[in-house]
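Practice problem 4.
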């Protein structure tokens, strides 16, 4: 609608009162001057309003001047007439107009749509015959109904929040034109279905409880504009952009938007929202077989720094005393729509959001809970401060989850609790300062990059099930790319009861227990591990990597361990105490430990390190020389520890074979000395070597004598 003012000349003023004298414009004055031969009240003057059809009267402007405040205008009235015997009062304003200076008074009508002839009447009150009331032009502020849209006011809607405007709104839509809802509160007391595009220009629909308003076409409104109120039901049947603030600023705006929107809709969030918990179940319109929705923060698109976490599109905050999950998906399976690009081809989208569980005011509840859900796409998501886990996936089948960038920080329990996510893929997971494990996975998950730090439990815990008698199948496999773990109170990485997991690289440092611990796990492959200064706990003895329990056929490609921190209790570089067999480290390089490699005598067969500092080994089990043997046997071995109770000089080695390499480990506190012995042992520089604790000497047999390759002092 367009707003304009229709001005009416003062020459149009008339009166049927014989006591009034109207002096019309002349060379002496441009307006109408009115006097009374008999003072008194209830003296009326009138002007007919020649108005175009199809308009709404918004206000009347009365321009006047008084000679004395004792004689004034006491009433502004609009009447409407069709039959000659009835005049209906449509507007009555009893404000006293008392200005002795020229002025224009605006009498607000609201929105009155005339259906007959309209007359403006002024009630005059005169105190003296000599007083004068001067009337200038009359202005009528009106809105004209445009021909190409259907303004609900042009169809009789009042917009006062009390009058039932259901019929007027439905009539506007029945015109077949796009519907416009201007400023006002429009009560909807009966069901309405709107099939045309509806644009809200400042107006709201007050939908009564038990009443449904269904939109089968697009709804257009500003992002922060409230357009729905009360407790009725709103259904947006067509996929579109939906803003939770259309429902105002209450507690559960996001739930209202999700419940109302159609499959395929994009729900855009801006700023902070307080929620009592959002639940999406199979009972929603987007149930099994439907295309999902997108829940996206849009406050600062393109400005967010993922490393500093300074910008997030929107925050969903769990209200005080709401001991529930902040955002839950349960029993929902969406199907992809062919031809749509990612992420639109995924069932439900979460992106550019921050979930805050408000653990200071809540005692339980996860940030994002997944139970029986398929096809979920997560773009960028920060989950923090939850009384339960940050992300919790368990219960029913959870699969086909894809995540781009997920951060779980400061939650009371596990940061990212992956449960069993079949065929799920995450590009990046960050978990820090959580109350238990940082990241916990149980199978079927692929993660390209993990950074987990300062958690109360392990940095990364892989918890699965080995294949055992009576079980039908193995736990689904886990694939990890790069894993970085540091300053966790447990181990950096714990692999427990897991089978056939593959990990590209692990960088583990400054954790309070082991760098990596593998327990009761089979056939896992880790390409590279770098473990440094773990064992930061106050007491205990820890290793860069420890394999224990009944672990079998686990493979580590390259293992590098370092201890150069006096606070570190990483006393062993590599410790194998498993009763399982064939756990293999391809290459090992370590320094600074009390003992670099310890494979206990009770370990199963085939547990071995194939190469140490570039030196190939035959059998990694450390054999101990016979006490005070000056020509000990090295048959079939590569690693030997000294063990003399008294000073002993070794002058040769028995049972050597061509090409054999051996590593001697000092284990008797300097009581054994390897002598340079021409033709038997050829030491570098011809200098004898006494092996103190943890020293090593590497020799090669050329078929005639043993030749030194390298030596190290590791005490």
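Answer key:
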């Amino acid at each position: 609608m367009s707003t304009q003012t229709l001005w009416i000349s003062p020459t149009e003023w008339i009166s049927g009162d014989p006591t009034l004298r109207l002096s019309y414009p002349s060379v002496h004055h441009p307006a109408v001057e009115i006097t009374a031969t008999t003072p008194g009240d209830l003296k009326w003057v009138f002007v007919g309003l020649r108005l175009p059809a199809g308009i709404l009267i918004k206000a009347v402007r009365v321009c006047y001047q008084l000679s004395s405040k004792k004689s004034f205008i006491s009433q502004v009235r609009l009447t409407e007439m069709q039959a000659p015997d009835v005049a209906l009062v449509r507007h009555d304003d009893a404000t006293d107009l008392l200005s002795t200076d020229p002025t224009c008074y605006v009498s607000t009508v609201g929105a009155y749509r005339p259906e007959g002839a309209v007359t403006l009447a002024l009630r005059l009150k005169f105190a003296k015959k000599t007083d004068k009331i001067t009337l200038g032009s009359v202005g009528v502020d009106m809105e004209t109904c445009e021909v190409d849209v259907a303004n609900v006011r042009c169809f009789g809607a009042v917009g006062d929040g009390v009058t039932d405007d259901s019929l007027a709104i439905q009539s506007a839509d029945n015109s077949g034109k796009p519907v416009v809802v201007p400023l006002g509160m429009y009560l909807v007391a009966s069901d309405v279905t709107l099939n045309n595009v509806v644009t809200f220009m400042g107006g709201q629909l007050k939908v009564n409880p038990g009443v449904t308003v269904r939109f089968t076409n697009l709804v257009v409104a500003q992002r922060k504009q409230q357009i729905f109120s009360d407790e009725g039901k709103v259904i947006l049947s067509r996929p579109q952009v939906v803003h939770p603030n259309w429902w105002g600023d209450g507690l559960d705006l996001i739930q209202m938007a999700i419940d109302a929107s159609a499959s395929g809709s994009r729900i855009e969030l801006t700023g902070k929202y307080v929620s009592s918990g959002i639940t999406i179940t199979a009972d929603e319109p987007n149930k099994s077989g439907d295309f999902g929705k997108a829940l996206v923060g849009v406050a600062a698109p393109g400005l967010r720094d993922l490393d500093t976490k300074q910008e997030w599109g929107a925050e969903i905050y769990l209200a005080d005393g709401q001991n529930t999950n902040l955002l839950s998906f349960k029993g929902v399976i969406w199907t992809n729509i062919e031809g749509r690009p990612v992420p639109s081809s995924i069932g439900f989208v979460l992106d550019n959001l921050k979930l805050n569980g408000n653990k200071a005011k809540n005692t339980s509840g996860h940030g994002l809970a997944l139970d029986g859900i398929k096809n979920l796409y997560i773009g960028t998501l920060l989950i923090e401060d939850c009384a339960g886990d940050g992300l919790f996936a368990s219960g029913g089948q959870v699969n086909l989850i894809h995540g781009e960038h997920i951060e779980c920080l400061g939650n009371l329990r596990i940061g990212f609790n992956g449960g069993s996510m079949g065929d799920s893929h995450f590009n990046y997971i960050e978990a820090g300062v959580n109350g238990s494990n940082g990241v916990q996975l149980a199978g079927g998950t692929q993660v390209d990059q993990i950074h987990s730090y300062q958690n109360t439990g392990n940095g990364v815990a892989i918890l699965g099930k080995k294949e055992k008698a009576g079980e039908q199948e193995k736990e689904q496999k886990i694939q990890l790319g790069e894993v970085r773990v540091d300053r966790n109170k447990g181990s950096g990485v714990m692999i427990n009861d897991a089978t056939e997991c593959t990990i590209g690289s692990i960088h583990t440092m400054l954790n309070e227990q082991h760098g990596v611990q593998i327990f009761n796990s089979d056939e896992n492959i880790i390409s590279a591990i770098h473990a440094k200064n773990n064992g930061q706990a106050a007491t205990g003895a820890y290793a860069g990597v420890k394999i224990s329990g009944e672990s079998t056929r686990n493979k580590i490609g390259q293992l590098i361990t370092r201890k150069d921190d006096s606070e570190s209790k990483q006393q062993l570089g590599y410790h194998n105490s498993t009763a399982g067999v064939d756990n293999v480290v391809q290459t090992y390089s370590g320094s600074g430990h009390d003992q670099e490699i310890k494979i206990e005598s009770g370990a199963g067969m085939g547990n071995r390190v194939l190469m140490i500092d570039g030196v190939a080994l035959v059998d990694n089990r450390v054999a101990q020389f016979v006490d005070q043997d000056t020509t000990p046997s090295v048959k079939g071995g590569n690693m030997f520890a000294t063990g003399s109770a008294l000073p002993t000089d070794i002058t040769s080695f028995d049972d050597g074979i061509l090409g054999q390499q051996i590593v001697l480990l000092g284990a008797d506190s300097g009581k054994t000395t390897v002598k340079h012995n021409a033709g038997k042992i050829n030491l570098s520089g011809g200098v004898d070597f006494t092996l103190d604790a943890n020293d090593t000497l590497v020799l090669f047999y050329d078929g005639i004598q043993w030749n030194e390759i390298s030596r190290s002092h590791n005490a």
